[in-house]
Specification:
The chain has 173 residues and is an alpha+beta fold. The protein contains six helices and eight strands; from the N terminus they run ββααααβββαβαββ. The chain has a single domain, classed as 3-Layer(aba) Sandwich (Aminopeptidase), CATH 3.40.630.30. Helix 1 packs across helix 3 and helix 5 crosses helix 6.
Length: 173
């Protein structure tokens, strides 16, 4: 298990194939998936196959990382970066199970991931997308330093695009 980052309350590590059942349960919770714009996975084996074939760590040197709550060693969600080759941009994304909502963990992990992206990966800009109705996620982005860019349509889904430039970021680590 490769640990990438450590915050006050979290360890962020690479996902492994063994994490598939957790991810399947999280991604089939309608409340968790409400604002993602993503379909729920068909079955647990589809999630297992995704993790088995997840190329981002090797291909780009980063990806979405599993978030482990240090106090109880439980896997509680993910936070990390995703490279979009079609636009050559890097996106911040996060998702947590409901039991850990409202504790500031998305902000804590996002600040660490953004700092890692700028300081360790040499990124100059990070973007993020959020459904405009997801006020909690917008607050996380704002606390992390992101600023609103534009509203856009992705298919039939309305998204708000945010961005953070390295020159405007304040390292949190």
């Amino acid at each position: 298990m490769k640990i990438i980052l450590e915050t006050e309350r979290l360890l962020l590590r690479e996902f492994t194939e063994e994490d598939y059942l957790f991810a399947w349960r999280m991604n089939t919770d309608p409340d968790v998936m409400r604002y993602t714009g993503e379909p729920m996975p068909e079955n647990s084996q589809a999630v297992r196959s995704f993790f088995r074939n997840y190329p981002d760590y090797e291909k780009y040197g980063f990806g979405r990382w599993a978030c482990v709550f240090k106090e109880n060693k439980q896997l509680i969600g993910f936070n990390g970066l995703k490279f979009f080759p079609e636009t050559e941009e890097v996106d911040l994304g996060y998702r947590f199970i409901k039991d850990y909502w409202g504790r500031g963990l998305a902000t804590e992990s996002s600040q660490a991931v953004v700092t890692y992206g700028f300081e360790k990966l040499g990124l100059k800009k990070i973007i993020a997308f959020v459904v405009p109705e997801n006020k909690a996620s917008i607050r996380v982005l704002q606390k992390t330093g992101f600023v609103f860019d534009e509203n856009m349509l992705e298919g039939e889904l309305e998204l708000s695009r945010f961005y953070l430039l390295k020159s405007n970021s304040k390292p949190k680590l």
